[in-house]
Amino acid sequence: MTELTEMTETTLTDPTVVRAIQLVWREAKLLDDKAYEVWQDLYADDGVYVIPIDPDTEDFASSLNMVYDDKRLRGMRVERMIQGYAPSAVAAARTVRTISRFQVEAASATEVTLTSAQVLVAYKRGRTDVLGAELTHTVRLSDDGDRIALKVVRLLNSEEAVTASGYLL
């Protein structure tokens, strides 16, 4: 993978970077629409979705995480979200995500790693919550369809008590 050492305006207009950003935005829309079965298909078979507690960790496998989902665990989480029996699925929150401030961390013809900022607003049972997070997405590009190889959600309040969200971040 080719490391990019400085940002330029043309970096974000590079066709491979644009494809990766479009996939990140599509993921956000699917989550807001609660299209969880379609959402999980955005991930590579070996893709990982992680929400670490330690805001500085890079060793997710050896760290305590709120979420550390491979394909099997994502599938189980989606099943709970759509079956309607889990507390997180009953009267699920309505959400809207804004993802912006993209920066390219690394890029090649077949893979792009982006960081971005996310603001998620959730409404459930008369209560509105706002969550901020730093996101990292590694997107594999392929003629067969682009897929997320890694998504890291670093919540701003990850070291505090976080109530059950009832939605995917």
CATH topology: Nuclear Transport Factor 2, Chain: A
N-to-C CA distance: 27 Å
Q: What percentage of the residues does DSSP assign to strands (E)?
A: 35-45%
> Based on DSSP secondary structure assignment, what is the total number of beta strands?
7
Q: Kindly state the percentage of residues in helix.
A: 10-25%
Number of domains: 1
What is the CATH class designation? Alpha Beta
Rg, alpha carbons: 16 Å
What is the string of SSEs from the N terminus onward? EHHHEEHEEEE
CATH second-level architecture = Roll
Low-confidence stretches: 1-10
Task: Describe the global form.
Answer: globular
Classify the secondary structure makeup into a structural class: alpha+beta
Count of runs of 4 or more consecutive helical residues: 4
Mean pLDDT: 88
Nutshell version of this structure?
It comes from Raineyella antarctica. By secondary structure, the protein is α+β, with helices and mostly antiparallel strands.
Structure description:
There is one protein chain. Helices cover 24% and strands 40% of the residues. Strand 4 (94-107) and strand 5 (111-124) form a beta hairpin. It has a single domain (8-155), classed as Nuclear Transport Factor 2, Chain: A. The protein has a 7-stranded mixed sheet with strand order 1-4-5-6-7-2-3. It has 4 helices and 7 strands. Mean pLDDT is 88; it is low at 1-10. It is of the alpha+beta class. Keywords: Dioxygenase, Oxidoreductase. This is 3-phenylpropionate/cinnamic acid dioxygenase, small subunit.
